[in-house]
Design goal:
alpha/beta, 46% helix
Length: 330
């Protein structure tokens, strides 16, 4: 029997996962919000370095979880919506209508979202459901509703249970999802402790995402604006390394930072910089993930007594930009 999967928040990343999961034989229901009408009418059209140019549709598409059939149950709910920790209603409440079917009490919840310290509210709300934390590397853009650009073949997802000490059946759910994602044509791996991978992603995200949103530059484009740009990005990375060391996250060190920084430096040299998610959101006038990616890190730094002057400055500026966008829509 094919896996039944609900994708919650199907933008650029979710649209690619929709195609990938259908290639793996899954039945996929999509919650599409701002792009609902376009997807219901015409589906998605994706131009991808990995999958080619394809047009496809979800098996089922809805605007809201409240529109889902009450008798439908899912093996996985994969959240590819942006992470806004202070949203009202909370993500846990947003998902509740999809998690009330008693015939599937073990639906696995997958947080394919950016940032650190994002899992606790979901774990508290649904302690019996497998909770899988996912780190994604998938450079893609929705240029208009239902139109997806995926200019690189990079498509990697890293999975692990939350907490790392979860029961074996939770790890089995993560392993099965990784196998499914690989079957659909992507790269997937399972970690005993996903937090190392999540913090490594933060190295690049905290340094390059907000600077892109503030400067309106791509990741590589920002690095060539002045010698100070590289110093800023590297300095933020080193602050994240210091914080990871303080809280005891292994593997988040200078070597890991250098490997990730090399991606942006290569794009700078080749003139192929990418618009990261925050820059995409600013260009489209949408709220961006300042709290999950930057705010959670600087607040943890304050609590742990780790000096993070560069990242605190970036956070203050990005939060100001965020508040203006929310208030004015610009």
């Amino acid at each position: 029997m094919p896996l039944s999967i609900l994708l919650y928040g199907v933008g650029s990343v979710g649209a690619i996962y929709l195609h990938q999961l259908q290639r793996a034989g899954c039945t996929v229901t999509a919650i599409c919000r701002s792009n609902h009408d376009a997807v219901r009418t015409s589906g998605f059209t994706m131009t991808s370095a990995l999958f080619g140019t394809v047009t496809y549709r979800p098996d089922h598409v809805y605007r809201s979880v409240y529109d889902l059939p009450r008798d439908q149950a899912y093996d996985y709910i994969i959240v590819t919506a942006k992470c806004f920790p202070d949203s009202t209603p909370s993500l846990a409440e947003q998902l509740r209508p999809a998690l009330t079917n008693p015939s599937r009490p073990t639906t696995a919840i997958v947080l394919a979202q950016n940032g650190i310290d994002i899992e606790t509210p979901i774990a508290a709300a649904y302690p019996d459901n497998p909770l899988i934390s996912a780190v994604i590397y998938l450079p893609a853009t929705q240029t208009e509703p239902g139109i997806i650009q995926h200019p690189e073949s990079l498509n990697k997802i890293e999975l692990g249970t939350y907490p790392a000490t979860a029961p074996q059946e939770h790890m089995d759910a993560a392993t099965k999802l990784a196998e499914t994602m690989r079957s659909g044509g992507g790269e997937a791996s399972v970690f005993e402790d996903i937090q190392e991978a999540r913090w490594k992603k933060l190295l690049l995200n905290a340094a390059c995402n907000p600077t892109g949103a503030l400067s309106m530059c791509t990741d590589g484009g920002f690095l060539v604006t002045s010698p100070f740009a590289k110093d800023l990005v590297w300095g933020v990375m080193m602050e994240v390394v210091a914080l990871a060391r303080k809280v005891g996250v292994a593997g988040v060190d200078e070597e890991a930072a250098e490997k990730l920084f090399a991606i942006s430096k290569r794009r700078a040299e080749q003139g192929t910089g990418r618009a990261l998610s925050m820059l995409q959101d600013v260009r489209m006038g949408r709220p961006f993930e300042v709290e999950a990616i930057v705010g959670n890190a600087v607040r943890l730094g304050r609590r742990m007594g780790v000096d993070m002057p560069r990242l605190e400055t970036v956070y203050a500026l990005a939060k100001g930009r965020y508040d203006v966008m929310v208030e004015t829509g610009k």
